[in-house]
């Protein structure tokens, strides 16, 4: 495998503009960064899954098939719900099988980096492109959890498997293929696995994932275009900020409850999601809670810069904390729940405070607001840590090193397969 110019394929269920945030944005950043480095990148994603889950984006024709030099293949059928259900239930992308076989024809790609393949192809997709180096990047806990999030019965952290009943509580049909050897066999042909944090690597291991995992965090460009000039605060009062999907697992309920008796600052909530109406009802009558709805990426920087702190109150096991490093890039301190990868990231930066209870969250908010020197110290540490650990120029070389080492294992895998074929 030549390291000068590589041909990458990145299968993923969601990709902008047909996405819900998080992992899709991370895949896009990686794909664009590789193109800037001179590599060829093709992304394959599933518009059917996005439509089936209620997404209402543009048409495929409007979205186009080029994304800043990234070639994008958008899988779409006339029956998105049927196509998605078949993949979810069988572990095979039967509706798009012929198209995928053509995409992954022998000799087309040097590296196939699987991302969230749950609905774009399921575990069967991991068998594709055996002649390429195959990498799996775990943006969620899909390989060990049918719901991806290790949040059992929609009400508690998962500490032990109750998968069949849990899927029913999520109103999802159980995936019977998870009770076979289908997924382990598919994973056995992957040459490298990447976890987004040490916590996620260890959680995979705890739930029985049998393979070693590299740890590689997400990254951001050092600075968004057009954000160099200082700007005035977008809000007339001091405020704490939440940015993310408005879902129960993100813990915004607890943030609203904590802010109930906190009168010295407002709470701004940026994002949309299925839990938005319930959150608005909870916050009714509190003039200090403000819902911003969807805020474009280029406008978020201003909110980050002027926040007293960014609050990250998730109550589930995240794999990383993209919102944390977005805050750090803008020099905003973070107040994060002491759960999942957050202590790891905040501790690495020394740029925030941790909490476990609502009382501790309120105390952290008071501490940062009442002590400007503390806020300034955390702000400086945030920016310095971001530049050291989570920029494209730091993370991308580490990613390419994983690709190189996976290529050596892929060569050995293919040699063993040839030997077995001759012996047979």
CATH class category name of the largest domain: Alpha Beta
- Taken together, the total number of domains comes to 2
The number of distinct helices, counting runs of at least 4 residues, comes to 16
How far apart the termini lie comes to 27 Å
Name the beta content range: 15-25%
Structural class: alpha/beta
Description:
This protein is α/β, with parallel strands linked by helices and 424 residues long. The protein folds into two domains: 245 residues, 3-Layer(aba) Sandwich (Rossmann fold), CATH 3.40.50; 151 residues, Rossmann fold (3-Layer(aba) Sandwich). The protein is built from 16 helices and 16 strands. An eight-stranded mixed sheet has the order 3-4-2-1-5-6-9-10. Strands 11-12-13 form a three-stranded parallel sheet, with helices on one face. It has a three-stranded parallel sheet with strand order 14-15-16, sandwiched between helices. β7 and β8 form a beta hairpin. α9 crosses α14 and α12 packs across α15. The longest helix is centred in the C-terminal third of the chain and has 32 residues.
